[in-house]
Amino acid sequence: DVKVTQSSRYLVKRTGEKVFLECVQDMDHENMFWYRQDPGLGLRLIYFSYDVKMKEKGDIPEGYSVSREKKERFSLILESASTNQTSMYLCASSLSGDGANVLTFGAGSRLTVL
Amino acid sequence: GEDVEQSLFLSVREGDSSVINCTYTDSSSTYLYWYKQEPGAGLQLLTYIFSNMDMKQDQRLTVLLNKKDKHLSLRIADTQTGDSAIYFCAESLLPSGYSTLTFGKGTMLLVSP
Questions:
Q1: Which uninterrupted H or E stretch holds A72?
Q2: Is B33 helix (H, G, I), strand (E, B) or coil?
C-alpha cells in the first residue's frame, strides 16, 4: 500500500516561530500536495509539486513556502507562524499519468499557534 | 472558476440508504471523486468516475453523474454505523500530473443505530 507519512501529528508553536511540516511518501509518486483543512472551509490547496525542485502555488500560498529536494519528501514551511495558521495540514501524493489523479493522503498534522 | 458544493450534514438510520449530493460548476471536469474522512484521519479515496460515464457501482456504493446538470451523487446502500464520516466530493480538470483536485467542503454523515 502507498504510504504517506506526516512526521508530526500534533504541534504547538508560538507566534513568530518558524515551523517545518514534513511529509514522506514511499511509492515513488511524482506529485505531492499540501492542503489545509478548516471547519466550514473544507480543504484548500496551499502548494503542490510535480517533480523534484519544482513547486507551484495553490489557492492560499501566502505565509507558506515549500521545499522538495528529494522525490519522496515534500516539506511545508511557515517562516513566521501566526495564529490564523492554526489548522489541520494534510499532505498527499499521486502518480503522474493520463488517468485519474488519485491522491493518497497522510493522517494530517494538527498545528496550534499560540 | 472551479467550485464544488455539497450539503453539510446528513443523518440516517442504520440499514437505510444514504445519498450524498454534490454540484460542480466546471463542465471541463474530467474526473470526479468521492473521498471519506474518518475522525482524526486523512482522506481516503472511495471511488471516482470518468466524465463520460453516467454511473459506477462498487459493492454498496453507487455513483451517479448527470453532466447536463453538473450533479454528482454517492449512494451508500445498507448504511452502517461505521460509515459515519465526512464525505468529500472533488473534481479534476485535466489528467493526473497536470491538474490538482478541487474539493467541496464535505458532508458529515451521521448513522444512528
A1: none
A2: strand
Are B74 and B87 contacting, i.e. CB atoms less than 8 angstroms apart? yes
Q: Is B43 touching A (CB cutoff 8 A)? A: yes
* Non-local CB neighbours of A86 within 8 Å, separated by 6+ positions: A111, A112, A113
The three-point CA angle A31-A34-A39 to 5° equals 140
Split at pLDDT 50, 70, 90, the class of B3 is confident
Neighboring chain B residues of A50 at a CB cutoff of 8 Å: 97
pLDDT of residue B96: 52
How many CB atoms are located within 10 Å of the residue B54 CB? 10
Contact (CB<8Å) B100/A33:
yes
Calpha distance B50→B32 (Å, rounded): 7
What single DSSP character describes residue A98? S
Residue numbers in A near B104 (CB within 8 A):
42
